[in-house]
Amino acid sequence: MNKILVGLAALTFASATTASADKVGGYLLGAQYTQEQSNGTALRYGVGVPGLGLFNSGGYISIGGDISYLLPLNTTVGAAQSVVNGVDAVKAYDLYYGAQLGLGANIARVAGYTGAGFTIAPAALVGVEFNLADPFSVFLEGSVGLGVGLGGGGTSVYFAPGLRLGANYRLN
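^ Outer membrane protein beta-barrel domain-containing protein, sequence as received from the core. Prediction below:
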């Protein structure tokens, strides 16, 4: 029975990973894995160090992760199909939008005091991915949302804009 379950799990994983064009990528102070779905949408998982500061009386570090649901904004970029530098011009770039949920942990030491907290940050995002020579691409993405900080003696709500610039490598 265990062999059957292991075999089914392996078959499910293999079919899920080969049915889509997954990508790994990096951005300033972070890394991400994108799993494209058959309907054109994608799930992206990211992890990074969005904040780091060291100074004489202490410092802080923020470690965060996020999950994003991405949807295509364009299906064709131009009316006529042509080839530019070996790349199909219709797919020279992809526009997308989506929703993101970020979670983070913060630790700070200032003037002899140590504090810790957590953040939750839902956001809306929009981006463009430029498809270079296959399998490489670069992207620029902006997001707007609210951050909710918990810990450090209270709760705070703040405006949380974001910008992500990075590169991806298509795995299959």
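The two ends are 32 Å apart (CA to CA).
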